[in-house]
């Protein structure tokens, strides 16, 4: 007979993970990379790698991409947090629902 092993699933009394999910971290990192590339444009122009017209087009594109990725990262984090709050409230844990003074809605 084998002894019982500890379960790897989180227990009902563990608080919800409010940190950002991995997909949100990756998306935020890509947004930061796009911002860094946009900041490197003056160096590329000075080095003669980019012309003024190419840099203007690239700058507008990078700014739009960075803004879109940042908005996506925030949306993914918000959905992750909302899903965990709902799951905890449905489980009726000590931190769930509005009865404990910590509304997860």
Characteristics of this structure?
single chain, 105 residues, mainly alpha
Brief characterization of the structure:
The protein has 105 residues and is mostly helical.
Description:
This protein is mainly alpha-helical and 105 residues long. The chain has a domain at 22-91. Helix content is 61%, strand content 0%. It contains three helices and no strands. It has helices at residues 22-39, 41-46, 52-91. Helix 1 runs antiparallel to helix 3. It is rod-shaped, with a radius of gyration of 22 Å. The termini are far apart. The relative contact order is 0.16. The model is unreliable at 6-15 (pLDDT under 50).
Fold topology:
Blueprint lengths: L21 H18 L1 H6 L5 H40 L14
Helix pairs in contact: 1-3
Protein name: Mercuric ion transport protein
Keywords: Membrane, Transmembrane, Transmembrane helix
The gross shape turns out to be rod-shaped
How many distinct helices? 3
Residues in helices, as a percent range = 55-70%
N-to-C CA distance: 45 Å
**Biggest β-sheet strands, sense, barrel:** none
List SSEs in N-to-C order. Answer: HHH
Query: What structural class do you assign from the helix and strand content?
Result: mainly alpha
Low-confidence segments, given as residue ranges, are 6-15
Biased composition (Polar residues): 1-12
Protein name: Mercuric ion transport protein
Organism: Paractinoplanes bogorensis
Region (Disordered): 1-24
């Amino acid at each position: 007979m084998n002894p019982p092993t500890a379960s790897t699933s989180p227990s009902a009394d563990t608080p919800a993970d409010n940190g950002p999910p991995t997909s949100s971290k990756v998306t935020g990192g890509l947004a930061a990379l796009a911002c860094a590339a946009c900041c490197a444009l003056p160096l590329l122009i000075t080095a003669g790698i980019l012309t003024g017209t190419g840099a203007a087009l690239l700058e507008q594109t990078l700014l739009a991409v960075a803004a879109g990725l940042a908005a996506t990262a925030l949306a993914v984090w918000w959905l992750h947090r909302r899903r965990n709050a709902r799951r905890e409230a449905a489980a009726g844990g000590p931190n769930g629902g509005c009865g404990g003074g910590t509304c997860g809605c």
